[in-house]
Structure formats: structure tokens, C-alpha cells
Amino acid sequence: MRRLLLRLLRIELVLVYLVIVAGSVVRMSGSGMGCPDWPKCFGLLIPPTQHEQVEFHPYSDYKKGQMIVVNDTLWVAQNDFQTSGDWDRNYWSAYTKHDYSIFNPVHTWIEYINRLLGALAGIPMLLIFFASLYYLRSFTIITLIGASGLFMLGFVAWLGKLVVDGHLIPGQITLHMLGAMIIIALLFTMMALLQQNVQKYQLQSRPLKTLLSIALVLTVVQIIMGTQVREQVDELYKQFDGGNRSAWLGELDITFYIHRSFSIALLAVNGFLWQRNRKSDEPVTYISLIMVLLLLELITGVTLVYADFPPAAQPMHLVLAIIIFGLQYFLWFHNQLARVKDPESETFLAKRGLLNSTPSFQSSMNQDEKK
Fold it and tell me: In the predicted model, is pLDDT for residue 347 greater than 60?
């Protein structure tokens, strides 16, 4: 069961990161309202590809919930019916959750693919929850994490609905990203608890562990500020209709400049951590990987600023930051309570009702491996 859960966790992590990439492409391209409703798209399971599909046509069949655009307004079919020669408002109700009524097939399908990836991510998460029930009595925290991950995935999907219904209200998008980060943290937590060979994740001294904790906090703060900057960029995209990107930098507020300067502190802490780790007797290779990713992250950030926000750099910048967060959290958790086989860790968990101490977790894991 342990091996199955680890495989499912890896699959789910890949899918969650793909959803984040897709979400970033949605925002980069201004496709957030490509589907004006949720969970369907223009009231259809498979969204339209041509303008004719969202226009009124006489003597045509329409299904209940299907949407069309008439006089720059979204209308929803109240029932299944066939139209007459003229448009009759009695068969339709105005869509009142927002007033966005532009149909762009490219934007629609970018947003739809994003939703499909989100739905696909729900499958392994559901399987993770069911598989985690195996540990309900012997290692309760695994089951709790499985349930929390499933809940958070549903919560993030619900937030996505609010974003659509609210026409991309600022603030909800940042909350949406924080929800995704919590899901990643839950997945890495379960993965760390199920790991057996954990020596390669152990930092050799308390100062190194402290530096890692500081680096993780700085990364979270930086991502939050970056998301705030990204919301401003979204507004500028709409304001300038995707053009005149050279003027965007001058329109950003102080959050951008704090975010840019904060990267110096982030680089300094991670650089010091990398140097100290490299000189230790048993260096953790993940620290070097994080440093490489951080340098790439800084390069994409500089590219965004000095190359007038090229679209391709935006999703790369976000995804690199989330990968760094995931790796830092994974190492941090290992170094806080990584070795659940140790007696002290078992006692800690058992006292909180999260681990049945008889038989020990080590014994249960060994038995599980034999199966």
C-alpha cells in the first residue's frame, strides 16, 4: 500500500503542477473568462469553437442551460426548445452573475483545458484518499492528510467558480494560488511520512535547518507578493488590451518594487544555505537543485522586467517559484519530523492519536512492504 500511495502522490503532484502551469497560461493570455459559466462552458460540456455556435439561429434546437450572445448580453435557454423565425426573449433568461459576454474561441479552449486538467487531478486525489483509509487505525495522520487533500482540491475548484462568477475579482486569485500551495504541502507531507530511506534529506546541523526554515518563509512571502503583482499585470493586460507592454512597468505600485528587492534577501539566504550545506560532511543534493531553480527564477524575473513582460516568461516564473516552494517544504518537513520511525517521533504522534504505537509504525511499514 505504501508503494501504491507514493506512486499516486507523484502522479498527483505532476498533475497539480500542470494545473498551475495551465492556470498561469490562462492568466498570461487573458483567458480567465473564456468560459463565462462554471463548471460547463457556455452551458455545454464541450465548448463551442466558432462564433456561430453562440449566436441565435432561427428554427434551431437549443438545450436547457445553453448560452448565446445577443446584443452583447449572455442569455441562457430556460428549457429544451426549437426556435421560431425570430428571437423570443420569453425562452431565455439573462445571465446576471457578471456582464462579460465576449466569445473568443482561443480563450475559451485555453480555459477549458485548464478545467479538464483540474478535473483530471481529482482522480488520483480521490484514489489517494481511499488508499489512505488503509492506515486509519495504524497511522491516522495519513488518512487525515488524504481527506484534507481531497477537501482542499474541492475547495480550490469552488474558488475557481467564484473567480468566474465574480469576473476575476482581485484577491480571490491570490487565495486560489494559496489553496494550490496548501495542496502541494499536504502531498509532500504524506510523501515524507511514507519515505523509508530519509538520510539523504537530513541536514547536518541546527544552523542549516534554521536557514532552511527562513528560506521557506521568504519563499512563501515572495510568492504571495508575486501573486499580487501578477494581479496588477492582469489588470494592465485588460487596460491595454494585451498591447503596449513597455508601459506596464510604470503602472505597477510599490508591491512590485518590494517584490523585486525582496529577491535579493531570498538569494542571499539560499546562497548561504547552499554554501554551508556544500561544506558539510553529507551535503543534501536537493539544496543544490533548489539553488539552480532559484537562479532560473531570478533570470525569468529579470526577463519579465527588462523585456517588457514576454508572455512565455510569466508561467515559467510562477511554476519555478512553486517548485522551489515544494522542494523546500519537503526538506523542511523531513528535518522537523521526518523520521517517523524514530521512537521520539512515534511517541509524538501516538500522544496525539495520530499513530497507534502497538505495533510500532516501523513494524506496520515492514509488514506492508512484505504484502
Answer: no
